[in-house]
Amino acid sequence: MRKEKSLIEIRIAELNQGVHEYTFTCKASDFKNPEIEEPAFNGDIQVTVAAKKTDTEIVTAIETVTDAELSCDICLAPVHRRLSGQFTIFFVFGNQGNEAHETDGEYRTLPPSATAIDLTEDVRETLLLSLPVKVVCEAYPECNALRTDEETQTEDDQTQNSNWKASLQELKHKFH
């Protein structure tokens, strides 16, 4: 019985040492996952994978870029955003019994018989993590007011943080 070909897969059986770049273009519907098929991901998804192979491991750097159609959290107006995400995974050559690498999502053990690395699920997760938590449009004054308030609050936090650090430095010099 033959396994279905993965959407985003890198063949490693005859991969030479060094850096190798791969590009993939897919659609959200290719993932066959309701979280990705939402209206937000309606365009092409560009995936770039840089794989660096050494004697002991393969390091893959995944980068995703796509356009998304979201809705403003305040007024529900349509908002167009360009989303990008990055994720790095270390695949270590070894036996499956190595539990230290299996517990961490960024470190995985490859069996000696592995001929390919399936990155489809990792790309799906990278896409989901690239979605913004809060979406605010620029079309209406009410939405812009909230955005301006958030920016002012961030600046105030930075000012308070710098004052706190200055006081801490004074105490440090006083006691040393």
TrEMBL record:
Protein name stated in the entry: DUF177 domain-containing protein
Species this chain originates from: Prosthecochloris aestuarii (strain DSM 271 / SK 413)
UniProt-listed Pfam families: YceD (PF02620)
InterPro entries tied to this protein: YceD
